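Subject: Sanity check before I submit

Could someone independently write out the structure tokens for this chain? I want to compare against mine line by line before I put it in a report. The sequence has 275 residues.
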Amino acid sequence: MAVLAVVSGNGSPGATTSTVALATCWPADVLVADCDPGGGDIALGWCHRQLLGRELDLDAGVASFVEATRRGHPATAAGLAPHLQTPAQAPHVDLLVAVRTWQDGSQVDEMGWQQLAVALSDITRRPTAAGSAGRDVLVDCGRLGPFTPWPVLESADLVLAAARPGPRQVLLACRALEELAGRIAPSRLAVLACATDPAATSKLIEARGVLPAAELPRDRLGAALLLGESRRSWRRFERTKLGRAAHRAARRLHRRLHTRYADPAHVGLASRGVG
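---
Independent answer below. Compare away.
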């Protein structure tokens, strides 16, 4: 199994929504780790009904795991298990809740992120109750900044830089990829085109010579259903434009992660010298 990390530059390109959409549609059991050091909001949106019903604990997650390892608990799949929770709407997903604020994120030092990276890697190798060789892991690493969880990014099998297809967002994605390429092999970098459409993606390819590893459309209803901003049932998500695209993208990324040799067409901006 493998670790897929999503990260972004400045702005709001849709990294969190994309991570949740991919996890919801992932074709196998998966762990979602919200490693946004600025205080992730996956739980606040995706699992808000469980929070209101007090079925989800915001104190159990990255912060509690890091604190446990400081007390000598093992950085393994078994050591991570007590800090995971399951979203009611996606029983094939385990969720590691993010720290609450930037201040909390700043308290997670390099060693803390390293311990978490080790545990996530162990998750991908440990046999599951269903008999599979391990689970995939999807990680939302938030925006690049002073508290970026570099050990988690550096240990990932594939890192996606989230970008909207507008000129400013593409420029921010290029800058993010340039920074990532200083620490991560270009073969493990790619672009995730968020809130896009065929015409916009074509312009992105034409302007920057990039074929995104996956594309997710602009769909306000789909995003609202997914993140609990609509009163309609979240079960309608799979029938939305975003839901259908997320299914295709999840299958495509799953195949890529589990193919020994990645398709050379799916190469990130940095590997093509775009900046």
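---
OP: Matches mine. For the report I'm noting this point. The longest helix spans residues 241-257.
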